[in-house]
TrEMBL record, chain A:
InterPro entries: AAA+_ATPase, ABC_transporter-like_ATP-bd, ABC_transporter-like_CS, ABC_transpr_LolD-like, MacB-like_ATP-bd, P-loop_NTPase. It comes from Thermocatellispora tengchongensis. GO terms for cellular component: membrane protein complex; plasma membrane. GO terms for molecular function: ATP binding; ATP hydrolysis activity; transmembrane transporter activity. This is Putative ABC transport system ATP-binding protein.
UniProtKB/TrEMBL annotation, chain B:
Belongs to the ABC-4 integral membrane protein family. LolC/E subfamily. The chain crosses the membrane at residues 21-43, 252-276, 310-331, 343-363, 413-437, 624-653, 674-704, 724-743. It comes from Thermocatellispora tengchongensis. Its main location: membrane. The lineage of its organism: Bacteria, Bacillati, Actinomycetota, Actinomycetes, Streptosporangiales. This is Putative ABC transport system permease protein. It is found in: Cell membrane. Residues 259-363, 632-750 form the ABC3 transporter permease C-terminal domain. The keyword Cell membrane applies.
């Protein structure tokens, strides 16, 4: 392969769950390459292995076989702790259920990854103020997550994922739990950080959400069945709230 | 470094979010440590008051009575002497109280208390030259004779002259044992008062106390004093004799206390483990999130250990302070704080227990997989067997649903049941200790104390003593006895051989195994003796008493609190006549309802003070205060149980949020929802209370007996709390638990839960 050093590269990545005696092959020989600044959407029906794939890319789950390379470094052999340390600098996660730390204020939630990546409390605070300001949440800094609406929580989660300036942003159905208005807001934000050069891998089962990306990778039964750039320009349907169909996975 | 900052941030946020719970943990641990320190101090102080008194009075190690004071200077010059009390003039007088006479040593001390061996005033004041008729009375003498502040203190000197003095103060000292075990009693007056009461110098003696650099050299110094003063010396006593006479055989109570300590430690572990365990279960999603942000397994474990460990250790520290405070209040400023050894043991024991109790759930928290799970799914709607039963007997829907809930979620169900059952077990064991103490008092014969009084004939001939005893209306039976040393078969150690009663009229031992002795050559023994000689009931043992070999067949085992249980008891007629006649003492069993003190006074009066009558001291009496500690510990345990319940219900409710919405959508009123939740908790509580009580009842007497066995006292002292007590305890426990369960249930039933969180 030529071109710049990829942010993520996997070689014949396989994940087999061994629960209850019957092995389930969730990811089945995936070769994936994501270059810096790319915005990749991973699509596929429920159970096709999308979550398993991004969890492995972020080290939350171990691979059964194959290789994972992050920023030119082989990482699939790392221990759980080494992965944790690596995540502090390189990876940001956004989950479907927001997963804000319930006890901490919005401000603390966002500052935590910055502190972990070695920022001083002051730098962490400045980064948090900048991010919350950019996401329109500056005045909610002292609120607790439970006081926020779903869309606000997901924007905070996004701010938190960006707080350590990760080289890779992983988002697993970030809009799966939001109504259409909040979905639009979150997607707009993702678009903005992408324009600023952020590499993003986003899982979704919604074609309209995927259409925001540069490239769509389609998974089926753990295998890549389609990988291609999105033809542009995309026709966005007119209409307001409620036209994003809610599906569950 | 960076992880430290993040962890600190998390800990601070977490503590802020659950101030109440954190406080509860601290208080629970502090309560337990306070209870342990208090009971250990009381035990130490109650069984060995000498230590406290000696320190408080800056006591002297050796006391010497001599004919005159001339040689005091020489005594002070003995090697190792660092301080001298006296010499004080001391005269024998008789205290007269409406016909009752008590022997007292009147001692002259200055109005300014001396540096060494200054009595500590407990009531009233010290001697004052403005009040030359004032007497300061030693406390045990005041107690035994019923003297209070201001009471007249009428004494007759050896010349028969009467002097009216008055009690100005009551004080304690470490220079002699307690009256009446140690006679004569002690009272202090000013020198000029003593000169008035006993002008003749020849009828008084001179008393001097020596404080030593090394207490162990007391015997050497005493010997030195004897050599120095030769025939002028009248009496020498060392601190060891004083301590021994004040000491109470605390073996049985020590046993209870040890058991108690174990209960306390388990309770502390439980309080902490439950708080941390429940917390970790609640926060597993947060831990997954923190891991996805880059915290490692070890860092999460460390964070939890630091947070909860710090709370526990804070509790230990507060408890140490609390223990000091409580004992100070209980002992009224008298007595010493607990000695360093036991304090350190309690502190280290609880600290270690707390840390282990924290470490286990913390370790589990660290092992949370980093993939944040979706919010907990509602349980599949299996009807448990119990719920089906409830349905069958047509219970209201809330009860059916509650019964279903109770058993569908294993985690919270176990947490609730065990969280209630374990404190309940401990409470039952505590009640068992209480019942055992009651047993000592109600049935002293079961611990070998059938006789309430011991009479030594003293100067009287045995026949006269027997006549006096027989004539007393309070005495039901009396048993002549002698205690001799018996060389055990290998002739290397002696055991106590107690000849008491005769085979025709045996002393009423209660044999816990076998039977009492009923024939010449038969004996009963304590567990310690059986273990020492490696014999069992039915075996013969050969001992040597006063050079005569004696072969005894052991026919029974009795509970034997004395001498580590290494005691052999048999009838006087088993002894050779030269060892048996005349008997050393008589053990008096009183008629039911007869007051030992009155009987004692009667016997003393009848014999004109010639009989030596002592009360057999029941170990449970002097330590009645330990019951206060049992009550306190039970209160702490109850709090812990309720705190556990709160943790478990909080956890249950978190998992329940969605169910509740569904239930309400189905048309249940808030009241029905509350009933559902309370039923669910109530069933588990009932189960826990039942299981805990059963476990405690079956274990408590067994545990006490096990401890008894290993200490030589022998099994057979442990008691199970009475059924009525247990029933009331269970009712109260279930009632309190339901009340506590009602609070979160009520709140949850009223809150509106959005269905759309998923
Ligand atoms: N922890 C697990 N244990 C066993 N099987 C799992 C586990 N997680 C996912 N699976 C299985 O792996 C497959 C892929 O799951 P997942 O990656 O969650 O799919 P998607 O995110 O595309 O819906 C599914 O068949 C799922 O049942
Ligand atoms: Mg998924």
């Amino acid at each position: 392969m030529s071109g710049p050093e990829p942010v993520v590269r996997t070689v014949n990545l396989v994940k087999i769950y061994q629960t209850g005696g019957v092995p389930v092959t969730a990811v089945d020989g995936v070769d994936l390459r994501v270059d810096p600044g790319e915005f990749v959407a991973i699509m596929g029906p429920s159970g096709s292995g999308k979550s398993t794939l991004v969890h492995m890319l972020g080290g939350l789950d171990t691979r059964t076989s194959g290789e994972i390379w992050l920023d030119g470094k082989r990482v699939d052999t790392l221990s759980e702790s080494a992965w944790a340390v690596l995540r502090r600098d390189k990876v940001g996660f956004v989950f479907q259920f927001f997963n804000l730390v319930a006890n901490m204020t919005v401000a603390d939630n966002v500052e935590l990854p910055a502190l972990l990546s070695g920022a001083t409390p002051r730098q962490a605070r400045e980064r948090r103020e900048y991010l919350l300001g950019a996401l329109g949440l500056a005045e909610r800094a002292d609120a607790s997550p439970a006081q926020l609406a779903g869309g606000e929580q997901q924007r905070v989660a996004l701010a938190r994922a960006l707080a350590n300036k990760p080289s890779l942003l992983l988002a697993d159905e970030p809009t799966g739990n939001l109504d259409s208005r909040n979905t639009r807001d979150v997607l707009r934000l993702l678009g903005e950080v992408h324009r600023d050069g952020q590499t993003i891998i986003m899982v979704t089962h919604d074609a309209r959400v995927a259409s925001l990306a540069d490239r769509v990778v389609s998974l089926l039964d753990g295998q890549i069945v389609d990988d291609g750039a999105i033809p542009r320009p995309v026709r966005r349907p007119r209409g307001g709230a409620g036209d994003v169909v809610e599906l569950r996975s | 470094m960076s992880a430290l900052r993040a962890s600190r941030r998390w800990i601070r946020a977490d503590l802020r979010a659950r101030r109440g719970q954190a406080l509860l943990t601290v208080l629970a641990v502090a309560g337990i440590v306070t209870a342990l320190i208090t009971s250990a101090t009381l035990l130490e102080d109650g069984t060995n008051p000498w230590r406290g008194l000696f320190t408080q009075t800056d006591g002297a190690h050796v006391w010497i009575s001599a004919q005159d004071t001339a040689d005091a200077g020489k005594l002070a010059g003995l090697p190792g002497v660092t301080g001298v009390a006296g010499p004080y003039r001391s005269a024998p007088v008789t205290l007269v109280q409406d016909g009752k006479k008590s022997p007292v040593a009147l001692r002259a001390l200055p109005a300014t208390p001396p540096k060494v061996a200054h009595p500590v005033v407990r009531e009233g004041r010290w001697l004052d030259s403005a009040d030359p008729d004032g007497v300061v009375v030693e406390r045990s003498l005041a107690r035994a004779t019923g003297l209070r502040l201001g009471s007249p203190f009428t004494v007759t000197a050896l010349n028969g002259a009467r002097h009216e003095l008055a009690v100005a103060g009551i004080a304690e000292t470490a220079e002699q044992g307690f009256y009446p075990e140690w006679t004569p009693g002690l009272a202090w007056v000013l020198p000029e008062t003593l000169d008035r009461v006993e002008p003749a110098a020849g009828r008084s003696e001179s008393v001097i106390g020596l404080r030593l650099a090394d207490p162990e050299s007391a015997r050497l110094v005493a010997q030195g004093a004897v050599t120095l003063l030769a025939e002028k010396i009248q009496r020498v006593s060392t601190w060891r004799e004083v301590r021994a006479s004040m000491e109470l055989d605390n073996r049985l109570l020590g046993l209870l206390l040890a058991l108690f300590g174990v209960v306390g430690l388990v309770a502390a572990a439980l309080a902490v483990a439950n708080a941390v365990g429940g917390r970790v279960l609640m926060q597993s999603r947060d831990f997954a999130t923190l891991k996805s942000l880059g915290l490692t397994r070890g860092q999460i474990t460390g964070m939890l250990v630091v947070e909860h460990g710090a709370l526990g250790l804070l509790g230990v520290a507060l408890g140490l302070a609390g223990g000091q405070l409580v004992t100070m209040l209980v002992l009224d400023g008298a007595g010493l704080p607990l000695s360093l050894g036991p304090t350190a043991a309690i502190a280290a024991g609880t600290a270690a227990t707390v840390l282990v109790a924290v470490a286990v759930p913390a370790w589990r928290g660290g092992r949370t997989p980093p993939i944040p799970a979706a919010p907990a799914a509602p349980p599949r709607g299996h009807l448990s067997k119990l719920a089906r039963l409830a349905l069958l007997v047509r219970l209201p829907p809330a009860l059916v649903l509650g019964a279903r809930d109770a058993f569908t979620r294993r985690g919270p169900a176990l947490l609730t049941t065990f969280g209630v059952a374990i404190p309940m077990t401990m409470i039952t064991i505590g009640l068992g200790c209480w019942a055992t103490l009651d047993g000592f008092l109600d049935q002293p014969e079961r611990v070998g104390q059938a006789a309430a009084l011991t009479v030594r004939p003293g100067k009287l001939p045995a026949a006269e003593a027997e006549r006096l005893i027989k004539a007393d209306p309070g005495v039901a039976a009396y048993y002549p006895g002698s205690e001799v040393d018996a060389l055990e078969p290998e002739q290397t150690r002696t055991v106590l051989a107690r000849a008491i009663g005769t085979s025709a009229q045996p002393y009423p031992f209660v044999a816990v195994e076998g039977r009492g002795y009923a024939d010449r050559g038969e004996a009963v023994a304590g567990q310690g003796l059986l273990d020492l000689l490696d014999v069992k009931i039915g075996d013969r043992v050969r001992v040597t008493v006063g050079g005569t070999p004696l072969i005894l067949r052991i026919v029974g085992r009795v509970v034997e609190p004395d001498q580590d249980g290494e005691v052999l008891s048999f009838g006087l007629d088993s002894l050779a006549a030269k060892d048996a006649v005349p008997p050393e003492f008589y053990a008096l069993v009183l008629k039911p309802g007869a007051d030992p003190d009155e009987t004692r006074a009667r016997l003393l009066a009848a014999s004109g003070q010639d009989l030596e009558v002592t009360r057999v001291e029941n170990p449970a009496e002097r330590l009645a205060v330990i019951r206060v500690v049992i009550v306190a510990l039970i209160a702490v345990l109850a709090l812990i149980g309720l705190a556990n319940l709160l943790t478990a219900s909080a956890l249950g409710l978190r998992d329940h949020a969605l169910d509740l919405a569904v239930l309400k959508a189905m048309g249940l009123t808030p009241r029905q929802v509350t009933a559902t939740l309370v039923t669910g908790t109530g069933l588990l509580v009932l189960l826990g209370v039942l299981a805990g009580t059963l476990a405690g009842a079956s274990v408590s007497s067994g545990l006490i007996d096990l401890q008894g066995h290993t200490s030589g006292v022998g099994a057979g002292i442990g008691r199970t709390p009475p059924a009525a007590t247990l029933a009331v305890t269970m009712l109260v426990a279930v009632g309190a638990a339901l009340l506590v369960a009602l609070i979160p249930a009520h709140r949850a039933a009223r809150s509106r839960v959005p269905l759309a969180t998923r």
